[in-house]
UniProtKB/TrEMBL annotation:
Superkingdom, natural source: Bacteria
This protein's GO CC annotations: cytoplasm
GO molecular function: oxidoreductase activity
The organism of origin for this protein: Thermorudis peleae
Domain FAD dependent oxidoreductase: 9-215
Alphabetical keyword list: Oxidoreductase
PANTHER family for the chain: FAD-DEPENDENT OXIDOREDUCTASE DOMAIN-CONTAINING PROTEIN 1, SARCOSINE DEHYDROGENASE-RELATED
Protein name: FAD-binding oxidoreductase
Length: 217
């Protein structure tokens, strides 16, 4: 592995979650090593649609999503990278009367949580999206939602973390975690062992396999 083989925290997975956590830890002066089996943003974070969205979430997620959206306009500057972020709104479309009714209920619940979201009918919808299919009956419109390029965001967090002292090991797979009585002591990887006090499981769809390494299901 070369160099330091100890780290206060080992983050498993170089998707947006692991990269952002590594950045936040490094920003707070915490020694962190991110271990990624392939390359940064090679998982779901390199292949998603890019919606930066508050509407349509579990209502319990809404407070943090609403706080996060306030950070997005400044994130490019903070991370020193173009994220292709545009605050151009987000629509959820309804094509059947039942779906319109369900959407109205969802919008009412989100408005009650303080989100600026509203139902729009066909006339407004055609102004927003002139080529929208005639089968769309109505939509919910959240103007403060937007889009960004997921892979750029993930790489930007990873690079910013590195600038702050985080270590990123790519092409390195975590194969085991040593632990005793609830305390982690080291992580075994395909390139050697890293002694650590904390492990963050940010392995996305592979998280269950990492959890099993410490006996969690
Ligand atoms: C800007 C942005 C917009 C998004 N918009 C949408 C959207 O519109 N719609 C939507 O559905 N989702 C969206 N998403 C979310 C996306 O679909 C995923 O949910 C998210 O990227 C998952 O991130 P993750 O870090 O949890 O997982 P991943 O990106 O999958 O990262 C997990 C990483 O763990 C690594 N790994 C696995 N096992 C090991 C191991 N043993 N050792 C080391 N590494 C390992 C993998 O190689 C992988 O790189 C968006 C994401 C972003 C960043």
């Amino acid at each position: 592995m070369g160099g330091r083989a100890t780290s206060e925290v080992v983050v498993v997975g170089g998707g947006v979650i692991g990269s952002a956590i590594s950045y936040e830890l490094a920003r707070r002066g915490i020694e962190v090593t991110l271990v990624e089996a392939a390359t940064v943003a090679s998982g779901a974070s390199g292949a998603s649609a890019g919606g930066v969205r508050q509407q349509g979430r579990d209502l319990r997620e809404l407070p943090i999503a609403m706080r996060a959206i306030q950070r997005w306009p400044h994130l490019s500057e903070e991370l020193g990278a173009d994220l292709h972020y545009r605050q151009d709104g987000n629509l959820t479309l309804a094509e059947r009367p039942d779906d319109v009714a369900a959407l109205e209920r969802r919008v009412a619940a989100e408005q009650a949580c303080g989100l600026d979201v509203r139902m729009v009918g066909q006339a407004v919808l055609r102004e927003l999206v002139p080529d929208i299919a005639p089968t769309v009956l109505a939509a919910s419109w959240c103007p403060s939602d937007g889009h960004a390029m997921p892979s750029l965001v993930t790489h930007a967090f990873a690079r910013a973390a590195t600038r702050l002292g985080a270590r990123i090991l790519q092409q390195t797979r975590v194969t085991g975690i040593s632990h005793h009585r609830g305390q982690v002591s080291s992580v075994t990887t395909t390139r050697g062992q890293i002694s650590c006090r904390w492990v963050v499981n940010a392995a996305g769809a592979w998280s269950a396999a990492i959890a099993r390494m410490v006996g969690l299901r």
